[in-house]
């Protein structure tokens, strides 16, 4: 067996979900909404599976969707993308990540990772033969530190893998952070894989700069998007890859031998959804922000130090202050699910080394009654 997977430990998500079932807990650990997603988009998928094409679609994605992606990013980010040569559809963002890493690095190449990080990044980098180099981010701002960048970049650096906005922190990198990172990417002749799946799940008018819009990064960036996050349809697994033809043509060959293609009915429905009016995207953010505000107010009233979320489905608390000071995040999360019946995620699980051990993540993408029940249980626990 390959040791990278054979020796991998049970993920924190599997552990907490098992405990949530065992203790009949309110599950604020896993990151998915309990809303079914926009009805009109789901109806388009149903219509397409009954009346549309159900054999192999084009490997790069159906033209209808790739054209819609180009229009969408032109509308929201003023990006000019050639839909035929700079856009590819994948079976979810994780497949896009796997294919990109397989295509862009060789064994021994170094990959810069920012922790806390999405749990798939490190095993995918290692399986592709990459050598990880870590930049550790700190609460509450989770910004970049030039001293750390100087330490990890060198002549062996080939790829930088960035999640922007960042899960699990709910933070958005500033333009100054991105400009700083771009300086090192250009100086070391690297490619940036930017996982931007949370690009529409933004709050409080957060300033957000897609990396492809930075002049220094336009020809060095592979951008990954996700219909699952845009439409709260996490089970659909429809992703997008946007990059210059020189980069995309190689990543497309990896995609060809992984999944080859993506269900055509879902592609047709996503194409329809991406052209929805601005009101949908504004309303989606407003609904999630209201849920975040409700959970944040409840946790603050209970005495927790809440770190505001600018993006994603997630809100964090910092245990280093207040009544739980001195308790680590794993102990707190385990006690919370076992004694109070509320599942969360300790953020130290998102680090490969030298973790921050005082931050706990909650998913607020839930109905108000679910959040209120969680708060009642946490109150009794406190």
TrEMBL record:
What InterPro entries does the record point to?
Answer: Aminotransferase_I/II_large, Kynurenine-oxoglutarate_AT, PyrdxlP-dep_Trfase, PyrdxlP-dep_Trfase_major, PyrdxlP-dep_Trfase_small
Q: What UniProt keywords apply to this chain's record, in alphabetical order?
A: Aminotransferase, Pyridoxal phosphate, Transferase
**What molecular functions are annotated in GO for this chain?**
transaminase activity
**What's the cofactor?**
pyridoxal 5'-phosphate
Q: By its UniProt entry, which Pfam families does this protein fall under?
A: Aminotran_1_2
**Repressor is among the record's keywords:** no
* Domain Aminotransferase class I/classII large: start-end pairs: 24-378
User: Keyword Glycosyltransferase: yes or no?
Assistant: no
SUPFAM superfamilies in alphabetical order: PLP-dependent transferases
Q: What is this protein called?
A: Aminotransferase
User: What is the organism of origin for this protein?
Assistant: Dongia rigui
**Which lineage?**
Bacteria, Pseudomonadati, Pseudomonadota, Alphaproteobacteria, Rhodospirillales
């Amino acid at each position: 067996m390959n040791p990278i997977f054979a020796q991998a430990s049970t993920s924190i998500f599997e552990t907490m979900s098992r405990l949530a079932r065992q203790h009949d807990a309110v599950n604020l650990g896993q990151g998915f909404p309990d809303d079914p997603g926009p009805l009109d988009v789901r109806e388009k998928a149903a219509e397409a599976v009954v009346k549309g094409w159900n054999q192999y679609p084009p490997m790069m994605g159906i033209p209808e969707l790739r054209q819609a992606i180009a229009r969408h990013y032109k509308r929201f980010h003023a990006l000019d993308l050639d839909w035929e040569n700079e856009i590819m559809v994948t079976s979810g963002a994780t497949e896009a990540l796997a294919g990109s890493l397989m295509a862009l690095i060789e064994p021994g190449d170094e990959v810069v990772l920012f922790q806390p990080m999405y749990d798939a990044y490190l095993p995918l980098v290692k399986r592709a033969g990459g050598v990880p180099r870590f930049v550790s981010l700190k609460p509450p701002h989770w910004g970049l530190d030039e001293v750390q960048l100087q330490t990890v970049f060198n002549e062996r650096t080939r790829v930088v893998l960035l999640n922007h906005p960042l899960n699990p922190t709910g933070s958005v990198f500033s333009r100054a952070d991105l400009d700083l990172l771009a300086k090192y990417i250009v100086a070391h002749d690297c490619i940036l894989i930017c996982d931007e799946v949370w690009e529409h799940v933004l709050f409080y008018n957060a300033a957000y700069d897609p990396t492809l819009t930075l002049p220094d990064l336009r020809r060095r960036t592979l951008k990954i998007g996700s219909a699952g996050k845009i439409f709260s349809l996490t089970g659909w697994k429809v992703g997008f890859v946007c990059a210059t033809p020189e980069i995309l043509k190689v990543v497309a060959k990896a995609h060809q031998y992984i999944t080859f293609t993506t269900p055509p009915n879902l592609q047709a429905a996503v194409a329809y959804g991406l052209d929805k009016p601005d009101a949908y995207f504004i309303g989606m953010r407003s609904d999630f922000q209201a849920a975040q505000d409700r959970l944040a107010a409840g946790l603050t009233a209970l005495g927790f130090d809440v770190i505001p979320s600018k993006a994603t489905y997630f809100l964090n608390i910092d245990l280093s202050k207040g009544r739980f000071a001195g308790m680590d995040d794993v102990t707190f999360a385990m006690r919370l699910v076992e004694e109070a019946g509320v599942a969360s995620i300790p953020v130290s699980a998102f680090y490969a080394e030298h973790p921050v051990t005082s931050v706990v993540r909650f998913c607020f993408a839930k109905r108000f009654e679910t959040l209120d029940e969680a708060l009642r249980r946490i109150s009794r626990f406190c």
